[in-house]
Protein: 3-oxo-tetronate 4-phosphate decarboxylase
Amino acid sequence: MTETALRETICLLAKSMFDRGLTGGSTGNISARTEDGGLLVSPTGTSFGRLDPARLSRFDASGRLIGGDPPTKEMPLHSAFYETRSTAGAVVHLHSCHSVALSMLPDVDADDFLPPMTPYGIMKLGRVKLLPFFLPGDPAMGQAVRGLAGKRSAVMLANHGPVVAGRDVEAACNAIEELEDTARLAILTRGMNPNMLTQAQVRNLITTFNIEWDE
Structure:
């Protein structure tokens, strides 16, 4: 994908998520690798509904800002995924409602944040790690992601929002939407004793689709 096309795609996908209420106001941030090894990043204080392709923050392959507006303050999160996951071509962070609500409940499994409700939640995300609360922009968030040593493609920041890395920007956006959908199902069925996928069914999915699964 050319850089011009990538800029347009980032803004198109961001607006789609904003229009459907997956992140509101000036929340959320998104980044993607360019062909030369650099990054395009949503600027600080911008809305997903009104990103300007020409004003995206542009980093070169050495991590130096070379164009566009100042980047999101959550750059430590993005950098940590790119540094620890060689397959990461894009990173998305949202403040999506149901995933944040689920992160606030007392009996959620921090090592396996999402219950095994659908095959696609497993196929697109693997196991999601719930990280503790950090102040927005705190470099410690990036340190926490680095501490996972690249074993997770998705994390949930408690009381804050999900962060997902994907092979490209479309894959990352699809995966983070799956995370929010699964969290919504978990909230909707809470207390109803729903039928989850069995361990055997989960293992069959992992084997059949060669899913990255950190034990």
The chain has a mean pLDDT of 97. The first strand starts at residue 29 and ends at 33.
